[in-house]
Amino acid sequence: MNIPQHISIIMDGNGRWARQQGKRRLFGHNAGVEAVRDATTYCAEIGVRYLSLFAFSEENWDRPADEVKGLMELLFKSMLNERETLLKNQVRFRVIGNTEHLSESLLAAIHKLEEETAAGTGLTLLVMLSYSGKWDILQAARRYAADCLAAGKPLPLDEPGFSGYLATAGIPDPDLLIRTSGEQRISNYMLWQCAYTEFYYTPVLWPDFRKTDLEAAIQSYNCRERRYGKVE
Ligand code: IPE
Ligand code: IPE
Ligand code: MG
């Protein structure tokens, strides 16, 4: 089987999962942590190089304050709880997104875990937090413009060069993008990076997503013919 180098997941459906059980939305987010653990372990096992997880979008800041607070606390708690497992499994942890909006304490905890796991030789786990595709393209354009200004002239720019300004610089584009919960949209995720990504949608709600669901997605990926606009 051909193992994708980079798998990305839009982890959706936590709220609906909670509602089905008559519980508050945060109950669903909490349950989603188990699915994150399962996906991370499985990807590390089968030799995926990068697993990126869309955890919180720029637009998600507009959700009710208690849900936003609960999600940030959940991330904080999960980083503490999962630290040992990440280190043991040689997983490199990174957070990518607009960190301007994050609290000082959360940022400090993120940086600490990023440093502690930096030497990991296995899977790189990318948590896309306060991330949006348009934000990423815009911040890349701004940084390029700043470099031109500093150089006092327009600098040459090609596609690999622009990719180098994105928050995902140095990370290969996703080969496979999975979205759970039946929604079939990109929701302002990695717009530039998904130019030739294979999409896989499943009705499974994120807290229920397990290894077998991931296997099914990889199997589907293996039946795709990636043409990149060319003719066979
Ligand atoms: C995904 O689940 C998690 C985040 C966006 C943080 P949702 O919270 O979007 O769940 P639904 O879509 O309302 O079911
Ligand atoms: C996308 O899910 C963001 C994450 C999964 C983190 P949303 O639930 O926010 O997306 P929409 O609103 O259904 O497009
Ligand atoms: Mg949703």
What characteristics describe this protein?
single chain; 232 residues; alpha/beta; Undecaprenyl pyrophosphate synthetase; 44% helix; binds 3-methylbut-3-enyl trihydrogen diphosphate; binds magnesium ion
Tell me about this structure.
The chain has seven helices and six strands. With 232 residues, it is an alpha/beta fold. It has a single domain, classed as Undecaprenyl pyrophosphate synthetase, CATH 3.40.1180. A six-stranded parallel β-sheet has the order 3-4-2-1-5-6, sandwiched between helices. It starts with 5 loop residues before the first strand and ends in a 10-residue tail after the last helix. One 3-methylbut-3-enyl trihydrogen diphosphate binds next to helix 1.
Give the low-pLDDT segments: none
Bound molecules: 3-methylbut-3-enyl trihydrogen diphosphate, magnesium ion
Instruction: Give the termini distance in whole angstroms.
Output: 21 Å
Give the overall shape, derived from the CA principal axes: globular
The fold-level CATH name is: Undecaprenyl pyrophosphate synthetase
What is the number of strand segments?
6
Percent in helix: 40-55%
Helix-strand sequence: EHHEHEHEHHEEH
Q: Please state the structural category.
A: alpha/beta
The description of the largest β-sheet is: 6 strands, parallel
Give the overall pLDDT as a whole number: 98
Report the CATH architecture.
3-Layer(aba) Sandwich
CATH class, anyone? Answer: Alpha Beta
Strand content: 5-15%
Superfamily (CATH H level) name: Decaprenyl diphosphate synthase-like
The radius of gyration is 18 Å
How many domains make up the 3D coordinates? 1
